[in-house]
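Name: Fumarylacetoacetate hydrolase family protein
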Amino acid sequence: MKLALFDNWRVGVVDDDRVFDVTESVPGWKPAWPYAWMLSLIEDIHNRPDRWVAIGQRSPSHPLQEVRLRAPVPMPSKIVAAPVNYRRHQQEMGGKTGVYQGANIKTIQDYGLFIKPSSSIIGPGEAVTLPFSGRRTDHEAEIGVVIGKTVKNVSEEAADDAIFGLTCLLDLTVRGGEDRPFRKGFDGFTPIGPWIATSDTIPDLDDVHFRFTVNGDVRQESSTAHMIYSIRRLVALASYQTTLYPGDIIASGTPEGVGEIRPGDHLQLDVEHVGQLNISVASEWGHADYMGPWFNPFLSSRAIPQ
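Structure predicted for Fumarylacetoacetate hydrolase family protein:
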C-alpha cells in the first residue's frame, strides 16, 4: 500500500496512476493542524492492513497527476535523525579536503541520535527558503522510516513489527559550529514524500537503492546496504532513547556526495520501491540579517565540526 495525503489534506491510497480517496473512513479527520488523526490512522492501518486495502478498493478515485500531494506525515511527535551513518560520508566530511578540513569526524557509534522538530517538514512540490546567504547549506539524501505502533526498548530482531513503512526524506543542513538540531531544524529542512510505502511492499530493508539529483545532475547514489547502523538497528536504538509513537520518523543518515544547494535549485530524490520526491529552493534568501545584533554570531561561517 502507498498511503498519501493530497489536496486539502484528504487521505488517499495510491495505486498505479490513481489515488483512491478513503477520507470518509478516517475517524476524526479534519484538514487542520495538528493532524493527529493521521497518527491514529497509521496505527490502525498497521494493525489492520487488509481492512484498509478493501476500503481503498471501493473508494472514489482521481488521476494522480490531477491532485496536489502533501507531506504524508505532516506532524509526527518527533523526527529522530542519525548523524554520520555511512563510512564514505564520514570520509568526505573530515580529512584534508573535507567540509571540516582536518577534523576528527566520528560516526553514529560515537554521536548517537538527535531530534529534529516536526515543523521542519514540507511535502512534495513545496519550496524551502535557505536561512543564511553567508552560510553553506547542504543537501543530505536519506530514507525516512515511519513507525507504526508505540514501542519502547524494541530489539533489533523485533524491529520489523514496529516499522509501518518508508518515505523519501531530505535532511537539509547549514554548515557551521552550532549543534545539529539548530543547523538542521529550520522550517522546510525535512522534505518528505510523496507518500508512505508500507513495509510489506519493501522486499529487503537492507538493500533499498536511492538516487538524488540537483538540477538533473546526480549528487548522491547509494543503498541501505552501506549503512553503519541498519534500519532495524536504528529503530532499536531510537526506541531505547525515547518512546516511539505511530507516525514518528527515523531518518537513515546520508551517504557520500553531499553538496551545496542554492536559491532556484530543483531537488529530486528517487527511492526504490517508494517513489520520487521533488522540491525546489526558493529564489530568495532568508532574512536572518534583520534579526538584530544578538543574532550576529550565528551569521559567521565557523567551521567547527558537530
